[in-house]
Amino acid sequence: MSKPQVRKVVLAYSGGLDTSIILKWLQTEYGAEVVTFTADLGQGEEIEPARAKALAAGVKPENIFIEDVREEFVRDFVFPMFRANTVYEGSYLLGTAIARPLIAKRQVEIAHRLGADAVSHGSTGKGNDQVRYELAYTALAPDIHVIAPWREWDFKSREALLAFAERRQIQITKDKRGEAPFSVDANLLHSSSEGKVLEDPAVEAPEFVHMRTISPEAAPDTPTVFTLDFEKGDPVAVDGVRMSPAALLTKLNQLGHDNGVGRLDL
User: Fold this and answer.
1) Which of 117, 129, 229, 234 does the annotation list as catalytic?
2) Does residue 79 carry a pLDDT above 80?
3) What CATH code is assigned to 8-176?
4) Residue 119: C-alpha distances to residues 10, 130, 149 (Å)
C-alpha cells in the first residue's frame, strides 16, 4: 500500500530512543513536517532535554510543545477514575493507561491549532496502549489520520533500530546500546516496571526496581497517621491543608514512599 499524503503530523514525543527514531522515520518515510508534544505527567525525570533532541532532529522551535499537564491529569483523569473505582482485570490500577487519553487530547488540540493532518504515537502493535491512543484520536478527531509506526515499519529488532539511529545520526545514550535490566513507565500516579529481570515470576524482584517506595522492612516501626479531607468524592486536603490535585497526590506519594506502601506485583 502506498502511504497517504501527510503534510504535518503531531507526534507524542518523549525524547527517548523509540520516539526519536519515529520522529526521523516520519520525516524520511512520509516527508512530513513533524510537531512534537511532550507531556510533563510527573514522571520524575527531566523532560526539557526533549526540546534539544527535537531541535537537533530538525524540528522547528515553534513546532516543539512541552507542557506541564500534571494538574489536569490528576483533576480530570485520575480523580474521576478513583471515583469510579476503576480496576482492570481485578488488579491493574490503570496507572499508565489513564495518561494516554490526555496525551491524545493535547495532540489533537495542537493538530487543530496548527492545521496538522495526522497524529502519531510510539506504542507497539501488540499492546493495549495503541488502542487507548487511537480510540481517543477517533473520538476527538474522527477524520484525522493516525500513523502507528510499529505497525508499519520494517524494523524487526533492537539492533535494526540502533542501526537506523546511527545512519541518521540520532543521539543514543550509552545505556540504550546494551540490554537495560527492565523498562519503566512513570507518571504522578504510578511507576510500572517490566521485562528482563522481572520476567521469571518465581524470582523476587530486585530491590532497585522499587523506585517509588522503600521496603516494608525499612519503613518506620510506628504508624504515620494523617487525615484526608474529601469534597464531592475527591480528596482536597491532607491534615487540614488544602492542596491542588497534583500537589495532594505528590504529598500522598511521599507518605506512601516513607512508609513502604504502594507495591503491587502482577
Assistant:
1) 129
2) yes
3) 3.40.50.620
4) 5, 12, 11
